[in-house]
Each structure stands twice: as structure tokens, then as C-alpha cells.
Amino acid sequence: MDLSVTLGEYQLSSPLVAASGTVGSVVDFQEVIDFSAYGAATAKSVAPEPWPGRTPPRLAPVDTGMLNAIGIQNIGIDEWIRAVGPHISEVPTEFWGSIVAHDIDGFAAVASSISGSGVTAIEVNLSCPNLDGAPFALDAALSAEVIRSVRAATDLPVSAKLSSDAQPISAVAGAVAEAGADWVVISNTVMGSRIDPDTRRPALSGLIGGYSGSPIRPIAIRSVLEVSRDIPELPIVGCGGVSDAEHVVEFLLAGASAVAIGSAHFKTPRVATSITKGLNRYMKHHNVARISQLTGAYEPW
Ligand SMILES: Cc1cc2nc3c(=O)[nH]c(=O)nc-3n(C[C@H](O)[C@H](O)[C@H](O)COP(=O)(O)O)c2cc1C
What we know:
Elements: E1 5-7, E2 10-12, E3 16-18, E4 40-42, E5 59-61, E6 66-68, H1 77-83, E7 94-99, H2 104-115, E8 121-125, H3 140-153, E9 158-161, H4 169-178, E10 183-186, E11 190-192, E12 209-212, H5 217-230, E13 236-239, H6 245-254, E14 258-261, H7 264-267, H8 271-285
Parallel strand pairs: 3-4, 3-14, 4-7, 7-8, 8-9, 9-10, 10-13, 13-14
Antiparallel strand pairs: 1-2, 5-6, 6-12, 11-12
Helix pairs in contact: 2-3, 3-4, 4-5, 5-6, 6-8
């Protein structure tokens, strides 16, 4: 079975990607996760300077799925390069850096700094729901400006992480593609909230956070379908609510070339190992020789 896929010119040994923020810095999760099961692993987003993140509570379970408002707690790019950089080559897969900032110059500065650290691609987190103000990813023109500045700051492949909250998401995807994004990640968490009826307190100190897990999969699939229909030449990494091989196949059929796993890591850190077995079983059963054949191959009614 051939599990290799491509994102434009960029090759991955597997369609599975570890999603940013769910496997720490990648380096510090190596004891619990076998990263050779992934085509790529994405580190937690890093900013131009250290960010403390939001005050607790910043994680909350929901009937299904979870809410988070971590607020991108991170050590800042200078310390990140010192602490993480020397270990990147020890990770047995493509290592993607994820960058975040409050403004365009900040994105360009982190992109430039992280470029020499050993990361093999840069994911631009345009869609964090936990910062003050609306996420960049809700605004096509602003998202394009960010990607243009990152594109000018690095020679590495650049991807844009989008939000299913953007309507229409194809407008944002088209704008970032035009600005130089090599592929898009669809998508980040969906904005959500919860209030405890007894205490009357919101579940998150930040009131509104990012909703992730299985309930957002249909939303992310819809986004992937829209973007692959409207911009067929733009490679997509699907993301949202994936915890088994069938979910991965669903994203591929919708038009994704690779698929990121996020919250499922919290329940099953080695989930990619069982998903890989499931993909092999699926391919054998359905007579699929190369997994890349599944991309966009859903059967219309
Ligand atoms: C606790 C937590 C932290 C996250 N941190 C980041 C982050 O730093 N950068 C980012 O781009 N996405 C971050 N995400 C979003 C995930 O990468 C992923 O896009 C999202 O959770 C949807 O996928 P899932 O339903 O499989 O979890 C975070 C998600 C969670 C649950």
C-alpha cells in the first residue's frame, strides 16, 4: 500500500499530520508519540515574544468535543529556537513550525527567525480564536497581507491555517493562495462557548474559545468541499474531529491531500499508529493502491 501524498511539490510519506497545539513542541512529546507514523508533525504556534496565555479555566469538556482558550501560551521565538531547534533533526518526520503574531510585521519576523531552525515548512496560524480581536482568517485581504509578508521572509514552503468560521472560506483560501501560500490547512477550531447553569459562570475565563473534536468534523468537511470545488489547484490539509481511518478517508474524498489529527491525541496519544493500520485495511478492502487516488474522489449524487 502506498501511503505517500504530495502537497503541490512537497512530499509526505503519509497523509497523517499531527495538528499544532496538540503535540506540544513535538520534541517534548517524542516519549509518548511515535512520530514516524506521521507524514508531518506541527509544533505549537510560536510568537515573536513570550505569551503567558489566558488565565484558567482555559479547557472545558463538552458532551462531545472540547473547548479551549489557551491563548497561545508560548516561550517566544528566540527561546524556542534555543530549546527546540537543536532537537528538530531527531524527529523522524517532516517538522512544521507554526507561527502566530498580533500584526503583520510580527508574522514576518517569526517566519524569518524560524526559517533557519530546521523546520521544513511554516504553517501560519491565521485562525486562533483566543486572541483579542477577530482572527485574521475571517478577513481575506488581511490574511493575504500576512501571507505575503511571510512569503517574502522565507524560502520554505508556507501554509495558511484557516477558519471554518470564515464565510465564504473560499474567498480567504483564494486570497492566501494568490499571496503565495503553498497549501491551506482547513481548519482550526470553530468558535464556541459554554455556561454552567449552576454557577452561571462561563466554562472559559476568556468566555469564548475554540471548539474541537468529532462535532466539528462535518463543518470542516464542508469547508474542504467548498475550497476544493472553488480552487481545485490549491492543496488542502483537512483538520477537525479525526480519530479513525474512516474520518481520514472522508477528508481525502472531500478534496484534502493530507489530514491533521488534533484533540484525539489527548485521549489516545498513539492514535496515528492505529489509524495507519485502519488505512491499510481500507485500501486493501476497497482495492486502492495509492492513497493519493482518494483525493477529491467522492461520488456525486
Ligand atoms: C488545546 C488545543 C490547543 C491548540 N493550539 C493550537 C495552536 O497553538 N495553533 C494552531 O494552529 N492550532 C491549535 N489548535 C487547533 C488544532 O490544531 C486543530 O486545528 C483543532 O483542534 C481541530 O482539530 P481536532 O478537532 O482534531 O482537534 C489547538 C487545539 C487544541 C484543542
